[in-house]
Specification:
With about 160 residues, the protein is mainly alpha-helical. The chain has helices at about 1-15, 30-35, 40-50, 80-90, 100-110, 115-120, 125-140, 150-160. Helix 1 packs antiparallel against helix 7, helix 2 (about 30-35) packs antiparallel against helix 3 and helix 7 (about 125-140) runs antiparallel to helix 8.
Length: about 160
């Protein structure tokens, strides 16, 4: 049952974010430069090596699967977060990347003005994909999600509404 539910969430994510591109949004390696207070030149150099067209290719970039105190979810603007979000959502379905998943759960369940502004760019299908992931974790998540369960329930009620 969990496998079928997981595949359904993956299909929702893929469909909802199928044609999303990075545009002018903050890229994956740019987040590290921003976190390190890097220059515009350093940001441009970091951005050159990043994927900008196909978020599925991000799943092959080890950087997105690591959270080592630099860069990541807190440093994306709305456009950058929308492009990278489906990759993070897919990673959250794999329990082997606990650090990335913990960071994602914090981002998705923190109902701050900052996050609301960034998530306002998502359309209803994309919002439903996020909701589906949170519901999946609520029902099928292992003990690594025990800490997040109250925040997930609150976020589903207050922000990621049906």
């Amino acid at each position: 049952m969990a496998t079928e539910a997981k595949e359904k969430v993956q299909a929702l994510i893929e469909a909802a974010f199928a044609n999303v591109v990075l545009g002018q949004g903050v890229s994956l390696h740019e987040t590290v430069v921003i976190d390190n207070y890097g220059s515009e030149t350093q940001r441009k150099e970091a951005r050159q090596r990043d994927e900008k067209q196909d978020w599925k290719k991000l799943l092959q970039d080890d950087r997105i699967k690591r959270v080592d105190g630099l860069g990541g979810l807190s440093f994306y603007d709305a456009e950058g977060l929308r492009f990278h979000l489906p990759a993070y959502l897919m990673i959250a379905l794999e329990p082997t990347f606990a650090d990335v998943t913990a960071s994602l759960m914090f981002t998705l369940t923190s109902n701050s003005d900052f996050n609301q502004d960034r998530f306002s760019i998502l359309n209803s299908e994309q919002r439903q994909a996020v909701r589906a992931l949170l519901e999946y974790i609520q029902k099928h998540g292992g003990p690594e999600f025990d800490f997040d369960q109250p925040r997930i329930a609150q976020a589903l009620t207050e922000y990621w509404t049906a």
